[in-house]
Specification:
By secondary structure, the protein is α+β, with helices and mostly antiparallel strands. The chain is built from three helices and six strands; from the N terminus they run ββαβαββαβ.
């Protein structure tokens, strides 16, 4: 099995596939500006704050038994309570992984790396 592949419930899944599923689900949550360093919002964040997450590190995943453990790095918009936003991201990611891959999620670690302020 390649380093870039996870083996869960008897199937091999590319970490890139898991990252795509997780990123799409997290981006749909209200209050999320971007996942890692994948888009214009995060590029602007890195210009103004000199902080960014490499795209390949935006989503990290590992296998625990027959479940996936996922960490997702986010930039979020100011004004959204972090605890509610994190709970919404956990739910969205868990549902997406379950629907698309067909396996459960042991945990979704939400890492808020940047804060985006709205233009006034």
């Amino acid at each position: 099995m390649a380093e870039s592949e996870l083996c869960v419930s008897g199937i091999g899944i590319s970490r890139d596939v898991v990252s795509t599923i997780v990123s799409l689900a997290a981006r749909r949550v209200e209050g999320v500006a971007s996942v890692g360093g994948n888009d214009i919002a995060s590029s602007l964040i890195s210009v103004f704050t000199s902080r960014s997450v490499a795209p390949d590190k935006a989503v990290e995943s590992s296998v625990e038994g027959d479940l996936l453990h996922v960490s997702v790095h986010l930039a979020v918009f100011y004004g959204y309570p972090f605890t509610k936003l994190a709970a919404d991201v956990r739910q969205a990611v868990s549902e997406a992984v379950c629907e698309q891959i067909g396996v459960g999620v042991s945990a979704v670690d939400v890492r808020i790396d940047s804060l985006v302020f709205p233009k006034e």
